[in-house]
Write a structure and sequence with these properties.
Distance between the termini: 64 Å
Largest sheet: 7 strands, mixed
Strand order of the largest sheet: 1-9-8-7-6-2-3
Shape: globular
Length: 446
């Protein structure tokens, strides 16, 4: 059994702490009554170690986490997976001027390319059931073997819809050609505990990030960056020192260690939840998309001619809040903390919503994210003068700033690509976007 180093020390010391240090709430009065975690919310003190240069409880926690995840070294992050992505790409930025980036990569990846002057080599899989599939390994092989300026590839796996990329094949191709594999595993922390660690990023990647808060019992923004390639450790640590906050949350740190060790210490909770999800899939009155990741339950409302957005609103009135609705699918995220009783209640609620006659015939198919031919480079477009123009005038213009859908924070169009009618249709149909300002989009100025 693994001990909870950070939480145990914070809990013990909270009884004695006379707070003459930050934070300003001092764990007193009404604040403490409303935020009961306040006594654990401290700063770097003689007993609490320092995330920037750990040699005490944080160091012990990180050592245990690396052992559990199968990493050479692991680093707790309290700023979410995005700071981990920035740190990882910082660590490899000197390996080449280009990096392979599948289109479904998170916004933080494109931000890193912008910051580090890297040219993203954009790859995109096919559309299946209205969703993007991971790029074919043969495409990656062809790119790598024909361009010595590509230093690495970053992959999102699993993606928002539970699809796991062919990491084994990617890894073999990249290692053979002496390139690096980075995995944004923000949604896949739980895969580390599955039998044979099937699909887990840490089995194949040189660098990877686990967004532990997404599928483990961890506070929001709790994550872990890990490394298997020892050569990258100095550069990764330098990147972490740049992008991590100098005021890390101790409750978040404690929860990261707790969440990972809780599952390791109580592995039956994993198998119990997997069985509960299996039962849900068998009982659901609607088709549930097959996924590689059991924590993503993707329910297809189009099968009954129902708009998923309208169904999601009905479910919210019943107290069920999903991770995402995209018009066709509602994606329900579960974790090891989800119970069979909760899943049974969700199933009953879906059955009730589906039987509502007012929702019949409300489904309207939305356009899929199109493939796009690149005419100019990402970096070229970023460096040109730009202007903000209405959607109606944007077709045929070069994009100057990426724009996409949030969640899941992935681009429909990136800088350097030509804006098409299909791109405008996808952005216009989206409920929430980034890179769009009042129905206008940034283009390279003529």
């Amino acid at each position: 059994m693994y001990a909870y180093h950070i939480y145990s020390r914070l809990k013990k010391q909270s009884r004695f702490n006379k707070s003459f240090h930050v934070p300003g709430h001092k764990a007193h009065g009404d604040f403490k009554n409303k935020f009961t975690i306040a006594p654990l919310d401290i700063t770097e003190l003689s007993y609490s170690d320092n995330l920037a240069c750990p040699d005490g409880i944080i160091a012990d926690a990180q050592k245990d986490i690396a052992e559990i995840l199968g990493a050479q070294k692991s680093y707790i992050v309290t700023d979410g997976s995005s700071s981990g992505v920035l740190s990882m790409i910082y660590a490899v930025k000197g390996r080449g001027t280009k990096i392979i980036v599948p289109r479904n990569c998170h916004q933080s990846v494109w931000n890193a390319c912008k910051i580090f002057n890297l040219e993203p080599v954009i790859v995109q899989g096919e559309n299946e059931d209205g969703l993007m599939t991971p790029p074919a390994p043969e495409l990656i092989r062809e790119l790598i073997e024909n361009d010595i300026t590509i230093g690495a590839m970053i992959v999102t796996s699993p993606d928002y819809y539970g699809r796991v990329a062919p990491l084994k094949e990617y890894s073999e191709i990249l290692k053979k050609n002496k390139r690096l594999l980075i995995v944004d595993g923000a949604h896949g922390s739980h895969l580390a505990f599955e039998q044979n660690r099937r699909g887990y990023a840490g089995v194949y990647a040189d660098l990877w990030v686990d967004g532990a808060h997404k599928s483990l019992p961890v506070l929001t923004q709790g994550a872990v960056v890990s490394v298997n390639n020892k050569e990258l450790i100095p550069a990764l640590e330098e990147g972490l020192n740049i992008f991590r906050t100098t005021s890390p949350s101790y409750p978040i740190m404690a929860s990261v260690e707790y969440g990972i060790k809780f599952v390791k210490n109580n592995e039956k909770v994993l198998t119990d939840t997997i069985e509960a999800v299996k039962a849900f899939r068998e009982k659901c009155v609607l088709p549930v998309l097959p996924t590689d990741d059991w924590t993503k339950i993707v329910v297809d409302f189009s099968a009954k001619g129902i708009c998923a957005d309208k169904a999601a609103k009905r479910l919210e009135k019943k107290g069920f809040y999903a991770e995402l609705s995209d018009g066709r699918y509602i994606i329900f995220y579960v974790s090891v903390m989800t119970t069979l009783a909760e899943l049974n209640s969700l199933n009953n609620a879906i059955s009730s919503v589906v039987s509502n006659k007012k929702l019949k015939g409300t489904y309207i198919e939305r356009p899929s994210i199109p493939k796009n031919d690149r005419t100019f480079s990402f970096q070229y477009a970023l460096k040109r003068k730009r202007e903000l123009i209405p959607f109606k005038n944007a077709v045929g213009r070069m994009c100057a700033e990426g724009a996409g859908i949030t969640p899941p924070c992935i681009p429909v169009i990136v800088a350097g690509e030509m804006i098409t009618k299909e791109v405008i249709e996808v952005l216009s149909a989206a409920k929430a976007t980034f890179g769009v300002v009042d129905g206008k989009i940034w283009v390279v100025k003529r």
